[in-house]
Structure formats: C-alpha cells, structure tokens
Amino acid sequence: MLKRLIRWLRGYLYIMMAGGSPEHLINLCSGKGIVLWGLSYGVNKNKKQLGEKDVIYCNILLKDYRELRPLVRKAKAVPYIKERHGFPFFLRHVIRRKVYYLGILLFCALVYTMSLYIWDISIEGGYKHTEEQLMEYLQTTGVYSGVKIKSIECPRIEENIRRDFSDIGWVSAEIKGTRLIVRIVETVLPKLNSETKKTSLNTAHLVATKDGIVNYIVVRSGTPKVELGSVVKKGDILISGVVPVVADGETLVENKTVLADGDISLRTYFEYEDSFPLKYTFPVYTNHKKNGYSITLFGKKIFSHMPRNSYTNYDIITEASTLKLVRNFYLPISFMKTTISEYNIEEAIFSETEATTLANKRLLRYLEKLTNQGVTILEQRVDVKVENGTCKSAGKIIVEEPAWDYNPINDSEWRVLETDEHSGDNN
Predict the structure, then answer these.
(1) Do residues 264 and 197 touch, judged by C-beta distance below 8 A?
(2) CA distances to 207, 231, 232, 385 from 225, in Å
(3) Taking 70 as the threshold, does the pLDDT of residue 358 lie above it?
(4) Distance in angstroms (rounded) separating the CA atoms of residues 268 and 215
(5) How far is the C-alpha of 204 from the C-alpha of 172, rounded, in Å?
(6) Mean residue pLDDT across the chain
(7) pLDDT, position 352
(8) Long-range contacts of 126-133 (CB under 8 A, 24+ apart)
(9) Do residues 265 and 383 make contact, with C-beta atoms less than 8 angstroms apart?
C-alpha cells in the first residue's frame, strides 16, 4: 500500500513497447536499475503502422521514463505512452481547470460555514401553545433561525420553557445537524398550592374568592379559620396570616404575622349560558385559485410573486419548505407557496338534533377550558332547548377549584393593646 502511494506521488506512466526487441529493452532497463511492473504481452491493433506483431505493456516511473532514450536506441524498441497516473498529472489537470476546482473548494467552505448555524426550528407536541407562540418566545431568549449552534444550550432552553410555562410538564431540546427540535408535553394537572398564585406581599391572609364549601384544606403556615365542610362566602378568611403566641395560662403574649400558605379547594359552581341561531352560513369552494411564490435567503425575501386578488370571499393557505442537503442538514433557503381559493357563502338551517349535538360540543369545549385552568368538574346541570329559531343552553356546573387569593393584613388585626396594671386609684 505504501509503495503504491509513493508511486502515485512521484507519478508513473502506463506504456506500450513495440518494434525492434521489447524483451531486449526490458533487460537493458533491469541492468540500469529502472523498475518496470505490471508486465503483459499483447498484439497491437495498429500492426501496419508499427510493423510488428507483438507488443509489451508495463508501468514505469515518470523520472525513469526520461532515462529510456539511450536504451531505446540500442534495443530499437519504441515506447508509447498509453496512460498517465499520479500527483504530477493530477496537479497539471487542476491548474488547467482551476476555476472548476476553486468552485468545489468554495462550495465545501460554504457548506461547512452554514453547518455552524441553526437554519430550522421545529416545535413538536404543542396543543394549547401554538408553534408561532413558542417561536416568538424562543426568539426573546436568543434562539432563532440563523443563530450559531455553539451559542445554544439545550438544557437552558428546557429550563426556561418549564419556568415560564407552568402548563408544560416536559420539555426536550435537541440539535440534529442544522436543525433544532423542541418537543413538549403539556399537562392539565391542577395546582392547588401557592405556586399557582404569586404575591409580592411578605404577610397576607388566604381569602375565598367565591362562595362555596371547603372540600380540601392543608395548612402549611398561618392559622386555619375554616375546616372541611365549612360554608364560606366571598371574602372570608380561609387561612389567617396572624399567628397568636400564647404563654402559660393561655395568656396572649403577641401576634406574629406570616404569609399564609396551604392547599385549599372549594366546591363552587359556574353559571353557564350559551345560545346560537339555527340559521347559519358555510363556504362552498369554487375551482378558482391563484398561486403566489416567494423565496427567502438568510431570512430576507429575495423574490416574491403574488397574483392580484379580485375575489370577494377567499381563503389564503401558505405552504413553506426549507431546502436541505440531507435529512437534518437544512440550508438558509426557503420556498413559500401561497394559494388563494375563492368560495361562495351559502345558508342552511340546523335540525333540532344537529343543534343539540352542536350545543353539547360547545359545552364540552367550555368544560375542557375549565379543566385546563385547574378546575375539577364534579357535575353539570345544563339543559338544552331549541325554540324560536335559537338553540339555548343554560344551567350550573358544579366544580372543585382553588378559589382563593391573597389579602393584606391590617395593623388592627395583629396589634395587641397593652394595659397598665397599676392604673386606677390604688391606696
């Protein structure tokens, strides 16, 4: 292997020896120390020009070929160059086509430079939080298309998202090629402790924000004012931030103030009302469409063609794709196709069954929204009626929720008025 590499670096020729006595020429080369290898016999196709029947093929180093001239005269055998191999010939080829190879070199340098940056960011697993919302958030933290890969810390991205989005329970950030993939899992588990609500107060009560019945209470700091099953009104103190200090004989020495803390949930209800007309409109798409195209390079639009829009009613659908060399090697070039589709508006009327089904779906979406806010649905008493061209839903939704908030402590609630034991007429 090493011998082949040395021969390639020095350069060698594949030659054909014909005329006279090729065997004599081989013997003379051996005597002079000229190395020939890959010897083979063959019949030349152009016998008339050479005037001989037999020829010999072999390889010879470039420097040794220059020493063949005196030996050729003695053997009367003429060497013909059939092929050229090795670095000297490759270098000559490169010099002749320097623009071509310079282009290849510049292309490799450009690809390497672009591999140092993130050109595509993918958000996976989001439901409540849209991809656009999370992309805007990442941009505020210095993560965007075109940022250097070495400046991105995936653990920090994960920590920031978990800190700033309380309803995202799991985050994974991963860099593949020039692509950043952020996977999230949203959670709807309710939080009933003080992490749900934050306050700048150093001392405060926990008070009810709605009328209800105490379904769950755990006190970590403060004085409980209610117990399980207590009926409370809006504004009632659930956990007091005033903690009395009692001496022997149950004598009140002083009141300490703290920031009340605990887990509390109340059984409350929501009044639900919803209505919609039975008569509705819906789009019917025609076959009329117009397409627009644009090209973006390094985040800047370099070409854009948008057709003139003359439709009265239309939808706009945009499809974007980023150019990539291989699976995860994205380039800073993106193509965008915008389709404008015309539609006509037609009218229809819901049947009573269809209206009831739609009303129930709207109710389910409302219940799902409550659940996502940390509310537990216990019972729903909602009636659906169809009358006078309208579908109406009304009733109560019985829930369990952390219906509390902080309330500052007044000075009069904790100060102990000192009395003078020696006051009065003592003789």
Answers:
(1) no
(2) 10, 11, 10, 43
(3) yes
(4) 10
(5) 38
(6) 84
(7) 93
(8) 126/184, 126/186, 127/186, 128/167, 128/186, 128/372, 129/165, 129/168, 129/184, 129/186
(9) no
SS (H, E, C) the chain: CHHHHHHHHHCEEEEEEECCCHHHHHHHHHHCCCCEEEEEEEECCCHHHHCCCEEEEEEEEHHHHCCCHHHHHHHCCEEEEEEEECHHHHHHHHHHCHHHHHHHHHHHHHHHHHCCECCEEEEECCCCCCHHHHHHHHHHCCCCCCCEHHHCCHHHHHHHHHHHCCCEEEEEEEEECCEEEEEEEECCCCCCCCCCCCCCCCCEEEEECCCEEEEEEEEEECEECCCCCCEECCCCEEEECEEEEEECCCEEEEEEECECEEEEEEEEEEEEEEEEECEEEEEEEEEEEEEEEEEEECCEEEEEECCCCCCCCEEEEEEEEEEEEECCEEEEEEEEEEEEEEEEEEEEECCHHHHHHHHHHHHHHHHHHHHHCCCEEEEEEEEEEEECCEEEEEEEEEEEECCEEEECCCHHHCCCCCCCCCCCCCC
**Phi, psi for residue 150 in degrees, rounded to 5:** -70, -15
Instruction: Write the single-letter amino acid at 7.
Output: R
Which string of b and e fits 393-406 if b means at least 16 CB within 10 Å?
A: bebebebbbbbbeb
- 207: confidence class by pLDDT, cuts 50, 70, 90: very high
For residue 121, which of 135, 110, 101 has the smallest C-alpha distance? Answer: 135
Residue 69 one-letter amino acid:
R
Give tens-digit pLDDT for 269-294. Answer: 999 999 999 999 999 999 999 999 99
pLDDT digits (tens, 9 = 90+) for 49-66: 444 456 888 899 988 888
Task: Count Cβ atoms below 10 Å from residue 27 Cβ, excluding itself.
Answer: 13
Task: Give the pLDDT of residue 238.
Answer: 93
Dihedral (Cα; 67, 69, 72, 78), 10-degree rounding: 110
The tokens describing 281, both together, are 């409109």
Q: In sequence order, what are the residues at sequence separation of 6 or more whose Cβ sits closer than 8 angstroms to the Cβ of residue 10?
A: 61, 62, 63, 86, 87, 88
**pLDDT (tens digit, 9 = 90+) per residue, 124-165?**
887 778 888 888 899 899 998 888 999 999 999 999 998 888
